[in-house]
Amino acid sequence: MARIHEYKGKELLKKFKIPVPKGRTARTADEVRAIAEELACPVVIKGQAWTTSRKAQGLIQFADNPKEAEEKADQILGGTVNNFRIETLLVEEQLKIAKEFYAGVIIDDVTQMPLLIFSSRGGSGIEEIAEKYPESVAKSHIDIVEGLQDYQARNVARRTGISGKMLLRLGGLLQKLWRVARAYEARSAEINPIALTEDGALYAADCRITVDDYSVFRHPDLGIDIARELDRPPSRLDRIAYDVEKNDYRGTFYFIQMEQNFEKNAGYLGFHGAGGGGSMMSMDAVFNRGFKIANFCDTSGNPPASKVYRAAKIILAQRNIDGYFGSGSGVASQEQFHSARGLVKAFREENLSIPAVIRLGGNSEDEAVRILTEYTKDLPAPVEGYKKDDSADFCAERIDDLLKNADINLDKRVPKSRQPKAADSCAKYGFNTLTGRVTFDHEICLTCETKVCISSCAPQILKEENRVPVLNITPEEAKKGKCTECLACEVECEQHGKGGGFIDLPIVGLTQYLNESGGAITP
């Protein structure tokens, strides 16, 4: 789920005629003072951060005059909460609140329907309110086709003891909240509290809206640059990884940095999972061994080898990780040798210098483990591969042992994958893929007896012509996805051929990140 800040959520509420307090955002204390002068009333200053209990954390302050507002703004700006640096403040008029209500529209994953929740008691912790005052909370599912009808909205409020004109007013507000949620495909849209002021007005005093990840592209006006639910602004690696995912529909690639700026030998692992449940189990296994994870990553749903490769490269870009741990579902339906090739290409390009333990349980696991282990024997650090019958706990034990006892030979320098020179020779032959480019050096290919690139090409799009590999389909078909980027044309060619094949898979922004951060682990 992609979160949006309170101020942005209130802009959406205003579009649907839900009243919000007067005010606007500021990024400096001087701007806060100016806004307070414009409002000419006591104000509330709110640090914009994706966290709960902002008041308890000092991110919500009250001021009676512009000078005090400026001073309170100075206290909030530049502070850090859960790795979230406070850079934006919302300055609003203080409301004289007589009573508070809660309203929310959330997606109920069990019924796969929107669920309207209303409480005649507002304040933080709707779960606690429901437990302590069950009579004050009412719920009703919403038909996605029919929408929330006026009588349904009123009935929900009525069940909490609301009556009279207030019932009509709150029913109308609930309908408007539903329209906001529906229009922006929200996973959740909450107003907490709905404030009833002493003069009888209703306001959305605070709100929280999250948008479904897969709907973000339809709402560019929201300014969401990464469709993930984070408790902080996305890191540079988060953004780089998301650019890979959003532009490649094949399988899943989910990457989130958990920690940054840690020291070497602090017990942080680069974590690479496959499948939600298996990944959770595998994380527990490394936690139980006393390790911490620098990131969470999931490549599942039958991703191409190229996506696994990019995931591995991004994981390895994290500075000071001590090891690489890959483990997820032990019964993956995807052909695991594709994942193995993606890892091999990444590990060889990085001349891997930290131990890696990878569990590749599922289809063709024997072949996957063979590729992973045999093709990485000449790397400075050991790489171990395991199968579905090897538990996550056992694999965590292995990475622990390798980090304590592995012989890492930093003098080993395997040649990086043979990146082709500029295509200025008639011997260079290439074609574009969905996300990269394959190149064959036909001068080298002429000396190759195995033509392993052809025999190991999973989609069988290559053929031998005049003793060299060429496309067996049109370049247009290859670019549209007929080339599945299985990486055999490079990985198998390097191991069992002459090394004439190479596939370039750019990762936008990664090279610049490495140059500026020193994040590459290669010594």
Task: Tell me the number of strands.
Answer: 25
Instruction: Using the 3D structure, state the CATH architecture of the largest domain.
Output: 3-Layer(aba) Sandwich
What count of structural domains?
4
Give the CA-based shape: elongated
Mean pLDDT level: 91
* Alpha plus pi helix count: 17
Provide the β-strand percentage band.
Answer: 15-25%
What features would you describe in this structure?
The chain is of the alpha+beta class. It has 4 domains: 22-93, Dna Ligase, domain 1; 97-222, D-amino Acid Aminotransferase, Chain A, domain 1 (2-Layer Sandwich); 236-405, Succinyl-CoA synthetase domains (Rossmann fold), CATH 3.40.50; 428-504. The chain is built from 17 helices and 25 strands. The strands form 7 sheets. Strands 1, 8, 9, 10, 11, 12 and 13 form a 7-stranded antiparallel beta sheet that branches. Strands 16-15-18-19-20 form a 5-stranded parallel beta sheet, sandwiched between helices. The protein has a 4-stranded antiparallel beta sheet with strand order 2-7-3-4, with helices on one face. Helix 7 runs antiparallel to helix 9 (305-316), helix 8 crosses helix 12 (392-405) and helix 9 packs parallel to helix 10 (336-350). The chain is elongated, with a radius of gyration of 28 Å. The model is unreliable at 420-424 (pLDDT under 50).
